[in-house]
């Protein structure tokens, strides 16, 4: 399975790349891209923000692979988990992941319910004060963002060997993403791993609807896009380390 994109890409670099991709190939709708409007869209997407290019969407999904898994049957549940994408498997690719066996969402997996996996990219407030054309400067603020929704039917994975391979692939992907360590999952006693894996519910989703919404000013005049890009450096989110330190110090005891 494909490896994740460099996790250290900055917000500005990513948005710059997205703008360039959308202005070029992403809206070209290559022959292999999804055709036709979704029968039952999960998200409202104006035409200017719609991206169908499958390779572009898959690259985004691999980079932003920590997903919101949304199901509504038997009740609304949203679980936040890492995922693995097999882009060549199925019509639009297949998503693999697992949740805790104690999670009520297991019912949705075991009964083969519909699910939406939400892949979220960078986002942020954009001020008219950052723009340069008269029309834009007299407009209203907005929020720019990038997101992909992948919809399909949940299928439980119960075979022990498939469970093991899913975990191994997931761990290999994220170990590679952090540059690698001396941890070797496959060196652990397999029987012990499988015994512990009884506490999880792995699943797969063969994607049958893939929706990309990229609201990144791609439809705006070139001077506004050029003016807004450097302003995006305003957003310097705290790292996982910085927020973890803050949480240890500030969270209620």
Walk me through what this model shows:
This protein has helices at residues 11-26, 54-63, 106-110, 134-137, 160-177, 190-196, 222-231, 240-250, and strands at 50-51, 66-71, 77-82, 84-86, 94-100, 114-126, 142-156, 200-215. It is α+β, with helices and mostly antiparallel strands. The chain has a single domain (11-250), classed as Roll (Pnp Oxidase, Chain A). A hairpin with a 7-residue loop joins strand 4 (84-86) and strand 5. It is globular and about 65 Å long.
Largest sheet: 8 strands, antiparallel
CATH superfamily: Electron Transport, Fmn-binding Protein, Chain A
Count of helical stretches: 8
Distance between the termini: 42 Å
Topology order in helix (H) and strand (E) letters = HEHEEEEHEHEHHEHH
Rg from alpha-carbon coordinates = 20 Å
What's the helical proportion of residues?
25-40%
Class of secondary structure makeup: alpha+beta
CATH hierarchy, class: Mainly Beta
Number of domains: 1
- Give the low-pLDDT segments: 1-9, 17-35
Give the DSSP E fraction (strand runs of 2 or more residues). 25-35%
CATH architecture heading = Roll
Number of strands: 8
- Determine the CATH topology: Pnp Oxidase, Chain A
The 3D shape can be described as globular
């Amino acid at each position: 399975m494909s490896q994740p994109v460099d996790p250290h890409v900055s917000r500005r670099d990513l948005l710059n790349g997205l703008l360039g991709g959308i202005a070029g190939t992403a809206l070209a709708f290559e022959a292999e891209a999804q055709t036709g409007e979704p029968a039952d869209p999960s998200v409202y997407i104006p035409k200017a923000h719609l991206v169908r290019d499958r390779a572009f969407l898959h690259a985004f999904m691999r980079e932003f692979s920590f997903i919101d898994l949304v199901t509504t049957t038997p009740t609304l549940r949203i679980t936040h988990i890492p995922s693995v994408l097999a882009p060549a498997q199925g019509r639009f690719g297949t998503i693999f992941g697992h949740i805790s066996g104690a999670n009520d969402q297991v019912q949705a997996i075991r009964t083969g319910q519909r699910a939406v996996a939400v892949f979220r990219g960078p986002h942020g407030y954009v001020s008219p004060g950052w723009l340069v054309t008269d029309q834009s400067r007299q407009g209203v603020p907005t929020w720019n963002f990038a997101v992909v929704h992948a919809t399909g039917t949940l299928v439980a994975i119960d075979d022990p060997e498939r469970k093991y391979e899913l975990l191994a692939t997931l761990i290999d992907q994220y170990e590679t993403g952090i540059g690698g360590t001396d941890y070797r999952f496959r060196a652990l006693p397999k029987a012990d791993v499988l015994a512990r894996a009884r506490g999880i519910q792995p699943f797969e989703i063969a994607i049958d609807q893939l929706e990309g919404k990229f609201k990144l000013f791609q439809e705006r005049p070139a001077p506004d896009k050029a003016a807004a890009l450097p302003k995006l450096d305003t957003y310097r989110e705290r790292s996982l380390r910085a927020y973890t330190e803050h949480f240890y110090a500030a969270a209620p005891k």
